[in-house]
Amino acid sequence: MTASNVHVSRLYLREEALPTPFCPGCGNGIITNAFFKAVRDLGHEDLSGFAFVSGIGCGAWIPSPHFKADTLHTTHGRAIAFATGLKLARPELNVVVISGDGDLAAIGGNHLIHAARRNIDLTVISSTNFIYGMTGGQVAPTTFTGDRTTTSPYGNPERPFDLARLVAAAGANYVARWTTAHPLQAARSIRKALQRRGFSFIEILSQCPTAYGRRTGAGSPPDMIKWFKSLPVRKKDEPIVQMVPTKHGQDLGEFADRDEPGLVEILAHLKEPKR
User: Fold this and answer.
1) Is residue 168 domain-resident?
2) Can you give the pLDDT at residue 246?
């Protein structure tokens, strides 16, 4: 870590929260750095204008207790529900949800699609590692068909969610998917999302060597980074067709880029006197 990176981290991180709880090789540190780069590029010297919400799981530990900011560490699957209430009560804040795919898409899946439908003014970052990493390596809604986990010992019989397409189809203004092997692209998308009104969703595929890599045979962190680098990047104007994600066929890039009024703006208009 360079001296400048140390300086930037001290702007945004609580020193008493270090070292992190993440396993060696986990991608959550890369996601943290991508977020901080986006915030720094936007000129924020601190996180005083932000509020962070997370649920339960490895990804939820990214903001809480590490960020030097106001955070809500909520019950499992309810991060977006809490964040919705927070944003409506304090619309001037940048409310950011950072959590894992199990928390956001399984237990909290209904909250995710309805937040996108409402186009509520939140930025949601999903650390997607294809498994329940913290609670025992169970099958998740993003686990690929055929993967062996603690709850699918004969192979996962189900199809996984394509979270980027799901959220884009539900109505989010901005949706992008990158990986921990694409930190600069992820940071640019996060920066774009933070400037957007309405609902923004950034999915970052992240290596989990302890649970996913070990249980499914995906291998070590370098093996998983090599896999991420092989994934195709879609052209910006390429039509979005339905597809079932596969280990080597999951595409990256932007999936929605709209500028429609968010829920906060719509509710504010409802309060205006009728003529």
Assistant:
1) yes
2) 92
Between CA 70 and CA 221 the distance in angstroms is 32
- DSSP character string of 149-199: BTTBTT---SPPP-HHHHHHHHT-SEEEEEETT-HHHHHHHHHHHHT-SS-
The whole-angstrom separation of Cα 170 and Cα 113 is 6
pLDDT at 1 (0 to 100): 45
Render pLDDT for 137-154 as a digit per residue (tens, 0 to 9). 899 999 999 999 999 999
27's tokens: 């991608």
Q: Which residue carries 């980027």 as its tokens?
A: 164
Place of tokens 């993003």: 142
What pLDDT is recorded for position 15?
Answer: 81
Residue 1 in domain: no
Separation of alpha carbons 53 and 179, rounded Å: 21
Give the number of domains in the chain.
Answer: 1
- Residue 100 in any domain: the answer is yes
**What CATH number is given to the structural domain containing 224?**
3.40.50.970
In this prediction, the residues of the chain whose per-residue pLDDT falls under 70 are 1-9, 17, 275
Give a yes or no: residue 39 inside a domain.
yes
Which pLDDT tens digit goes with each residue over 172-227? Answer: 999 999 999 999 999 999 999 999 999 999 999 999 999 999 999 999 999 999 99
Question: How many angstroms separate the Cα of 216 from the Cα of each of 110, 189, 225, 268?
Answer: 28, 30, 15, 49
What is the domain extent for residue 77? 26-269
Note the residue count of the chain.
Answer: 275
What is the C-alpha to C-alpha distance for residues 168 and 236, in angstroms, rounded to an integer?
A: 14
